[in-house]
Each structure stands twice: as structure tokens, then as C-alpha cells.
Design a protein that fits this description.
mainly alpha, 5 helices, DNA-binding, 3 strands, Arc Repressor Mutant, subunit A, homodimer, 3-stranded antiparallel beta sheet
DNA sequence: CATTTATATCGTCATATAGCGATAAAGCAA
DNA sequence: TTGCTTTATCGCTATATGACGATATAAATG
């Protein structure tokens, strides 16, 4: 990171808090990670199942799972020879649902605007 | 971007939808942008006020504001010689509040764990 | 028109990270 | 032990992006 100039921010949120919050949102900012979370929403899956379902490489999936685990969004435990992954923070479902709903509203609004242009 | 291999994702969310959702979360994944949004939560501010409050350079603030505007999270309108910025999507407040609450819970949990170890 | 103010944009650098292949590590079977 | 399976990690390249300085645009003012 480049050196930060001193911030005189009149905020109730500290720099540390902002970094933490940003890192959580950053974990959700990649389509592949959202895809993995989406695969986990119906229930727990092994890494191998996620590799197959995501259509990406095993190394890539493993790395993305590590990001999600560090962000506290998923948990893992050994299950026989495999590693079982599961959503560990219910906030994941809420956040994604909120975002999906919001996008759907916007899309429908734009569709209406195209259907009835200029009101 | 490197060429994408064909995805055979068994998902109810399309690649396009995942990209859209990810881009929204990505807009929230930088501390500086969260700081700007935080400055806007009490009410609208001009770009100049945000530059002063954020402690960053004007060019940098302008670029981050553009990201937030493209993500539909803030709106702008000319107000005399200045440009007034305001939060355009109430989802911003909800998302940030949720994330803050969640982090606070986790921090308090860890603090308790340190206070009463292995308790 | 010239100037000042307020924003936006451009060029550049440094860093972060997605994706890939190869390999390592851990567990189980024979 | 060897071999197989599953997952994690390493090395690499290409790309994306944050931060900065300089410049360009736009509006108000003299």
C-alpha cells in the first residue's frame, strides 16, 4: 500500500473499521466467489463438488474459498477424505438477497423506461 | 481478462447477474469509498467538502465518486458552482449498517473469548 | 475576454489479484 | 513402502486499480 497521508476524517468510523468493512465487501466482489456462495446456499458441498459446479480450476476454487473463509463467510471441516464447506455467516444470504432484489427492481425500471420511453 | 472457459454452472444466477452483483459489492470494497459514503450519510455534500473531509486529493475523490455514481449508489447535481453529492440508493445505508453490526458482534465475541479464555 | 473556482480527466507508477499449471501435503488402501 | 485421492500452495503472467501530479473543462465573476 502506498503511504497514506494523515486523515482528519470527522467520522464515527475509524480507519481500521473502514478497512474491515471494505475487506468484507471485497470478499463478495468477485463473480466466482458469489458463484461458490450460491452453490453453498442450498447446503454444504465438498471442495471437489464446488470445483465441478463452478466450472473453474481446482487451484482457483481453493484460493477463492480461502478468501471466503478468512472473511468469515464460510466454514470448512474435514469429512472423510474431502473438505466440506458451508456458509458460516447468515449475513451472506441477506446481503446477496438484498442486492439481487435491488438489481431486479432497477432492471425492471429500465425495462419500463424502454417500453414507454420518455414517460 | 484471460479467456473464460465455458461455465456449466447449475445456478439460478446467470453470469451476467453475478457480474452485476459483484460490481455492486466491489463499489463498497474500498475504505475511501466507504468514507465518502459515510460523509454523505448525514446529508448531501459538495465535492469540495468531501475532498476536505476525506483527507484525500481532489482527483482521487472525483474518481471514487464516479465509481459510486456508476454503481448507482450516489447521485449528483449541479448546485451553483459546485456539484452536490447525495446517497441515491437506500441500500447503501442498510448494507453498511448490517456489516457494521456484524463486525461489532464478532469483535465483542472475540473480546469475550480473550477475557474468558476457553470458557 | 481574462480570471478564479470547482470538477473531471489523463498519464504514470506501484500494487493486488485472478487464473493457470505444477507441485506439495495429508489421508487412505493395498 | 507405493500408489491414489483430495485439497492446498507455489510460481508465473496478465490485468485491474488506487494514488498521485498535471492538465482540461465548465461555470461564475470581473
Amino acid at each position: 500500500m502506498p503511504p497514506k497521508k494523515a486523515t482528519s476524517a470527522p467520522l464515527h468510523l475509524s480507519d481500521t473499521a473502514l478497512e474491515l468493512i471494505a475487506s468484507r465487501f471485497r470478499a463478495l466482489s468477485e463473480p466466482m466467489r458469489l458463484r461458490l456462495l450460491s452453490c453453498l446456499m442450498p447446503g454444504a458441498r465438498t471442495v471437489g463438488q464446488l470445483v465441478e459446479a463452478s466450472g473453474s480450476g481446482q487451484a482457483n476454487v481453493s484460493k477463492h474459498l480461502a478468501v471466503l473463509r478468512e472473511a468469515g463467510m464460510i466454514g470448512t471441516r474435514k469429512e472423510g477424505p474431502s473438505t466440506l464447506c458451508f456458509i458460516a455467516d447468515p449475513i451472506v444470504n441477506e446481503l446477496c438477497e438484498m442486492m439481487c432484489c435491488r438489481l431486479r427492481e432497477e432492471m425492471e425500471g429500465k425495462a419500463r423506461a424502454l417500453t414507454f420511453p420518455a414517460g
